[in-house]
Amino acid sequence: MPYTGTAFLRKQPSFNVFNLRASYLDEAIEQINYLVDELGHYQIALLIQADEFGITLQKSLTTALKIKGSTPQAIGRFRRNTYEVEKALKLINKANATAVAMVGTFKPLAHFIHLSQKQNKQFVFTCVSFASGEDLFNELKLPSKLMITEVVPSPTKCTGKICEQFRAAIQEHGLPETHAIFEGYLNALVFNRAAKMCPLPYNNACVLKALNNVIKQDPELRHLFKIKAMQKNLPIFRSYHT
Questions:
Q1: Using one digit for the tens of pLDDT, what is the confidence trace for 83-120?
Q2: Where would you tag: which of 47, 97, 128, 220 has the fewest CB atoms within 10 A of its CB?
Q3: Long-range residue pairs from 173-176, CB within 8 A, at least 24 positions apart, any chain
Q4: Sign of CA dihedral 145, 146, 149, 155
């Protein structure tokens, strides 16, 4: 149950995988739909962390833009584990972009937003769940038009028995109510409920089949993920900073 939406774990890998979270392509499509269809932005640039993770998301965002008949206005890059985003910002400014889809960890993304605000740029920003919305929001000093796609519901706002039990457990152990911790909790919970559908001794075939059925059959999980009767893909959720 990997903590990633990368594509190669979804194309019949040779090892046993169950993806609870939506894919990076799903997140990219949600972001581009938000920017284009909801806000009317067509001049969209990409800020990409220069590593395999960044390349994966660049492909997903480019695919999502292609669906809209568009291409990236510019692609700015920065090295992993650095704050070196100045060249990327300069490139994106020259391209006259109005929105930036960002890929990376939260600190360099926050630095990029701060620099753009100092230059009085009125960008709309998006980024994927990997960045950690709670951490990124805490880094921002000024209001910003930022939407983060999430693969699980808000742990502080969701309703139902699972959410109540999660918040109680978090408070007991003194942990923050973050999307990342909630995702880990849900991975464990889904596996536990799937395992209970299999007789002892466990075998891979039964557990994998149960994992694929548990969300379809469990009313609490269906309520949590807002899954409709004929829906196949898990939904994408959103966090906003304003």
A1: 999 999 999 999 999 999 999 999 999 999 999 999 99
A2: 220
A3: 176/134
A4: negative
How would CATH label the architecture of 24-150?
3-Layer(aba) Sandwich (3.40)
pLDDT of residue 232: 63
Greatest CA separation found in the chain?
A: 63
Report the 3 state secondary structure along the chain: CCCCCCHHHCCCCCCCCCCCCCCHHHHHHHHHHHHHHHCCCCCEEEEEECCHHHHHHHHHHHHHHHHCCCCCCCEEEECCCCCCCHHHHHHHHHCCCCEEEEECCHHHHHHHHHHHHHCCCCCEEEECHHHCHHHHHHHCCCCCEEEEEECCCCCCCCCCHHHHHHHHHHHHHCCCCCHHHHHHHHHHHHHHHHHCCCCCCCCHHHHHHHHHHHHHHCHHHHHHCCCCCCCCCCCCEEEEEC
Range list for CATH 3.40.50.2300 in the chain? 24-150
Assess whether pLDDT exceeds 60 at residue 4: yes
Residue 222: both structure tokens together: 């269906």
Q: What's the predicted TM-score (pTM) here? A: 0.92
Tell me the sheet residues that pair with 237: 150
* Rg (the chain; Cα; Å): 19
What amino acid is encoded at 187 in this protein? N
Distance of CA 84 to the CA centre of its chain: 23
49 beta partners: 78
Question: Which amino acid is present at 150?
Answer: E
